[in-house]
Each structure stands twice: as C-alpha cells, then as structure tokens.
Amino acid sequence: MGNFDGLGKEDKQKLNNPILKNQNEPEYVKLLKASSYAYSKAKRGENNIKWFLLILAIAYPICYLLIKNHTLELILYGCSFVLTILIEIFADSIKGNVAQGALFKEQFDTKIFNMRWKSTLEEPLPGDIGLFSNQYRGKEEIKDWYSQNLSASIEHNIAVAVLQFSNTSWDINLRKVYRRFLIYILMFYSIILSVFIVAMKIDALTIFLLLFSLLPFFTYFISLIREQYGAIEKRVSVSKHLYKIIKNKINIDSNELRDIQDEIYSIRKEGSKVPNFYSRWFRTKGITTTGDLIEEVNKIYSS
User: Which residue, 29, 89, 200, 254, has fewest beta-carbon neighbours within 10 Å?
Assistant: First the structure.
C-alpha cells in the first residue's frame, strides 16, 4: 500500500472518495460478516474433503508397500467409498453456502456503489443476514474493505469501476499463487510415490491396485487445479475490460457497471474457494498490490 503517513490532515481528507463513506457502518459490516461466515462454512466442507483425501493418499502406499495387510486394504476401500457418498450428499450444502456468501457480498457492493439491485435476483432476508453475521468468529476486525485512499476527485462511476477492478485483480493474484501451491503438492507427492515404487521394486499388479486406489486423490486435486485455471480466466476477462476503462479514462454508464457487477456476482458463486489460512497468508501481499493500484489510479486522474 502506498505510504500516506507524510500527508497532512487536509490532504488525507482529499483522498477519501465519498463512495466509501459508509463502508464501515454497522449495517454494511454486518453484510461482510455474514458473507465471510457463509464462505467459511463452504470452505470447511471443502477442506475436510481435502484432508481426508490426503490422509488416504498417505495410508494407501503405506498399506500396499509396507504393511501389506489385506484387511487394512479393505478398510481403506470402505473409507474411500464412504467419502465418495459424503461428497455427493454435502455437495449441495457447500454450493448453497457459497451462493449465500456471494449474495451477501453482492448486497454490500450494490449499497456501497449506490447501484440498482438486479431485478431477477432475490435480496437476502434480514433474518439470514443476522443469523450468519452473528456466527462470525473472525479474529480480525472487518474494516476498510475497500481502500480509503481513493481520491475524492475521481467521479462516482469511475470509482465504482476501480473498486470492481480491485475485487477481481486481488482474487486473480490469490488464485494464481494457490494454483501453483496445488501443483507443487501434486508434483511432490507423485515424485515421492514414484521413488518408493522404483526403490522397492514393486510388482505390476500392486502398482496397478495402488494407483487405482489413489485415483480419487489425483482426480480431485487435478479438478481443483483446472477449476482455478477456469476461475482465473473469467476474472482476467473482467479485469482487463475494467483496466482499459480506468487507464484510458473512458466514460462508463451505470448500465455497463451493472453488467460488470453481474459478472462479478456470477463468478463469486463458483465453488473451489481458496482456504482461509491461505487467504490470510496472502493478504499482506494482496493489500500491497491493491494499494499500488489505488495510488496509480489517483495519479492518472490527478493529471
């Protein structure tokens, strides 16, 4: 984030765009808390699946290559079968929480941006907002969701475009790093497994049974990586369009901003969220990137 410590009180006030004056009000923070909790519920379900698959990915090689116990193999098969059933049972619940989180975030944005609500979309019920926000247990205070350093000289529609761009660009960078992390996990595991198979001179039948047993693990993680590629591609398309508008000072009307917001809402409803622990780890870098963006925009529109 740009360093504004040397600015006087009057200069700092010039940096506060009116579009951001209400974002820390209790009713707006309540929407962010509700959204965060809904997303966290979905992520917990996804994380449980990941951890279960990782445990099986370790247990199967140990069973086949070291213990060589047929009874244990059958138990692991049973675990894989149960996991497959549970994934199908809870898939709709995970998607529902993601959709709920996206809806809360959509209402926050439309209120902040003073944007009309999409007529075909049902607004979240006050009771749902209260129910989800009251269960939020985040350790950090939710404050200044959007950077307060956006210059007041930037007119409303451009300010909305800038904040929409900050949404997409931050998420793109986060997902790129997370996708790389998933690829490294898969590569590291595959290399270690191959080394064990070669070093222990495992016969072909055992290798086949082992790899067949590990198929759910490889399928799930490859799907996660592919989903990150798809999610990044969609966000890049929106981000490039917004950056072109901002960089070239192109006039944009409220209808086009609404269309862009529809795309952002649609993207937010997608599954395959980045785990909270990884988002927190990445946050410092992400905030720095957003701060640099706001500083660049302020310079563009001050000239």
Answer: 89
- The least confident of 89-93, 94-98, 202-206, 254-258 is 89-93
Q: Distance between CA atoms of 238 and 293, rounded to whole angstroms? A: 16
In the predicted structure, residue 278 carries a pLDDT above the cut 80: no
Would you say residue 6 has pLDDT above 60? no
Predicted model pTM: 0.81
Residues 255, 244, 172, 170, CA torsion sign:
negative
Is the CB of residue 252 less than 8 Å from the CB of residue 216?
no
